[in-house]
Specification:
This protein has 248 residues and is of the alpha/beta class. Helices cover 36% and strands 26% of the residues. Helix 6 links the parallel strand 7 and strand 8. Helix 4 runs antiparallel to helix 5. It starts with a strand and ends with a helix.
Length: 248
């Protein structure tokens, strides 16, 4: 039976020497939810995602993905998730199709299913017409689509997207969010970090992060209503000001 909750963080802490990158973060993400991590660069979003993906060990606290403890079962966790990093992690000297073939092998897609999964990734990402194109020749928007296609080849129930739209033009960003909705409607849980305030509106729920802490958590409409503010940008500014006042 699949777990109702896809991601659980309990009092998660990550220190690098004296620097606290993730400061006592607790939250839960429901299955099929589009959950956003919103905050400026250096807020702790990427560090948290890397812990959830089994790429970093937490200093303390607990992280669970798809029912598996990240610290205790990192290899099992990695088999149950897709991860798209800020830099897309593609091979520029391979074609679109060759990248998909390569990542099919890396993710352990059974040989008898590889053509089917590759066809799905090409169709889902809308990049089929460029399957023979060298990846180095693709625009940022097309590389973004290909990276997402590679990340879902093994049908992961949970997908982590770390600043996936950074440096991509607004039209390509909006199109990419359409792909995220398609994945969520198909039953995937999508956990996405961003520093674009307008993208907060696209999430079912989100956590506002600042200096390693979650300073607000909820649906965008609820956060705006509670603070009587018209935009998530204004919500974020007010929450940051409150956090700074609390620290002084």
């Amino acid at each position: 039976m699949p777990h109702e909750t896809a991601v659980v963080l309990e009092n998660l802490v990550k220190r690098f020497g004296d620097f606290v990158a993730v400061d006592n973060v607790s939250l839960q993400v429901a299955r099929g939810e589009v959950f956003g991590f919103l905050g400026p660069n250096g807020a702790g979003k990427s560090t948290t995602i890397r812990i959830l993906c089994g790429l970093l060990e937490p200093t303390s606290g607990k992280a669970v993905v798809d029912g598996f403890d990240v610290a205790m079962e990192p290899e099992t966790v990695r088999a149950h998730l897709g991860y798209m990093s800020q830099k897309f992690s593609l091979y520029d000297d391979l074609t679109v199709e060759e990248n998909l073939d390569f990542f099919s092998g890396i993710y352990g897609v059974p040989k008898q299913k590889r053509e089917e999964r590759k066809a799905f990734a090409l169709k889902m990402s809308g990049i089929g017409e460029k399957r023979a194109t060298m990846t180095s020749l693709l625009s940022g928007g097309w590389k973004q689509r290909l990276a997402l296609g590679c990340a879902i080849l093994h049908e992961p129930p949970v997908i982590f997207l770390d600043e996936p739209t950074s440096g991509v033009d607004p039209i390509a960003r909006r199109a990419f969010w359409d792909l995220i909705y398609d994945l969520a409607h198909a039953g995937h849980t999508v956990f996405v970090s961003t520093h674009y305030m307008d993208e907060a509106e696209y999430c079912n729920r989100l956590a506002l992060m600042y200096r390693g802490r979650v300073i607000a958590l909820g649906a965008p409409a609820d956060l705006k209503r509670d603070l009587k503010l018209p935009s998530m940008e204004e919500v974020f500014i007010q929450m940051v000001e409150s956090e700074e006042a609390r620290r002084t």
